[in-house]
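Q: I'm writing up a methods section and want to include an example of the input and output format. Could you take the sequence below and give the corresponding predicted structure tokens, formatted cleanly so I can copy it straight into the document?
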Amino acid sequence: MREASALAVSVLAEIVDAYQRKARSPFSSTALVLLAAGQSSRFEEGDKLLARFRGQRLIQRAATALQGHYLAARIAVIGPDQAARAVELRAAGWTVVVNAQAAQGLSTSLAAGIQQAEQCPHVEAALVLLADMPNVPDAHLIDLSNALTPERDAVMSVSEMTHSPPAIFDRAVFDRLLGLAGDAGAGRVFQSLEHTATVPIPADWAFDIDTRDDLAQALSFKDYSTCWHSP
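A: Here is the clean output for your methods example:
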């Protein structure tokens, strides 16, 4: 048998190696799930995710989330008859899932994304974000991931005391997300969990676009797309 001191050094070396791998690739066991199946029912003149925003279409901007990081999976959920969105997402390297039930509510798109993530090897968490929130910087997504410690089941953004996307969920609660119905979002599952945390998100980062006026307002905010540290 090896001496206790030698075993301790061996264990410590494994811990250090695991830490370094985590530091180099913090999202290597995370599936990024982009919900992009909205119907644009309130957006005047066309598909809101194809509208221009700071030189890109909204869907293209959403597709750049964590572009410089290795992830276990990049999964985007769209609705039927949204082929133009699919083209943009696939060009950016995303796996596209078509949710035929998208009109029945947000929960169906969330379930479609989580179900795909569940099938991917090595996925231990799902980071969920919405395609119509163009001002969320990578820095905030990194903060969410860092806050998902082993003893926590979920971490959600909070803006002015209101829970908001993006959010990250441990694989242990995927079944709860799959059980949602109607227009219920991930917030309902989050509120049912005991071991959670929140990360503050400024109101302009949490801003989502439903109308042309919203698009104009979002353009008035500072561009934090290159921000790497939370404010």
